[in-house]
């Protein structure tokens, strides 16, 4: 990738479409639909954002990305230009939004299934002082006969302004096990701003020597509603995974109703009535105390920390998202009023 810092230039980009009928027929789609940046932890004074450019096609999907021109803009002026070669684009190429013959039964992609040839995952970390607010991606694609076409997307970049005042969903000692996609954490648009919360004991210890769920210090910790709202999803029937660190396998999920959503384990989603929804996953079976339609208050116990679904060990996955259904709405950057931000990987906490 060639990176060139530019003087101020007016940012004016025009979409390019194939002009001949024998050129590859495709369109570009950004995932997620709205791209949010977040400030990086550790006092780096940088902000990061991640998105995918999906190459959508109806026929002749044997396509290759041959080049890309990326222009980062602030207040209508280009501040950096990057040129990506075929070899570099191949390194960020994925196919995670379409269903393949070997796609697991419980894979969240089954809830979206885009007709894509492939997607390209772009990750950017920029000085906060540059105030990047738009990015232009001009992508050239070739088919198997080396016929080429070009499309372009202009994508807004900004900070998310949270509307709901939230409290942390568990109390006591703990640690953040995994956090945002911008810090090497969750990787899909539907959970990219999720955080994994592990409970610890009074000495900030996590496990005894036993390889059992009950040996985990967070096992059975009360899970609390972060804010008032209405329950729009509640599941209480997903069995506990036998041991920490073990995937129960596809056969396990085949026995369950709605295996795609079962990958979230026993889960509650609360509608805060402002296009913000709190999602809490992986709780103990039988511990969920609410049902769809219930009104809950801030701090109300809704379940207990467990190891159900795609969890690989006892923890609570929490995310704020823009809609009521699992896997189909994008997650949102989140802050809690009773704990300091940022909640990055390895951060200890003690919430009273």
> How much β-strand is present in the residues?
35-45%
Q: What is the string of SSEs from the N terminus onward?
A: EEEEEEEHEEEEEEEEHHEEEEEEE
- Distinct helical segment count: 3
Q: What is the helix content?
A: under 10%
Span from first to last CA? 48 Å
How would you sum up the global shape?
Answer: globular
Low-confidence stretches: 2-19
Instruction: Note the main sheet.
Output: 9 strands, antiparallel
Rg over alpha carbons = 22 Å
Number of strands: 22
What is the overall pLDDT average? 91
- Going by helix content, strand content and strand pairing, the class is mainly beta
Short description:
This protein has 352 residues and is mainly beta.
Explain what the structure shows.
Mean pLDDT is 91; it is low at 2-19. With 352 residues, the protein is mostly beta strands. The longest helix has 6 residues, at 86-91. The strands form four sheets. Strands 12, 13, 15, 16, 17, 18, 20, 21 and 22 form a nine-stranded antiparallel beta sheet that branches. The protein has helices at 86-91, 250-254, 259-262; strands at 2-5, 27-31, 35-36, 38-39, 46-56, 64-74, 77-84, 93-94, 116-127, 134-142, 148-158, 172-178, 195-199, 222-224, 229-234, 266-271, 277-283, 295-296, 301-304, 316-321, 331-332, 348-351.
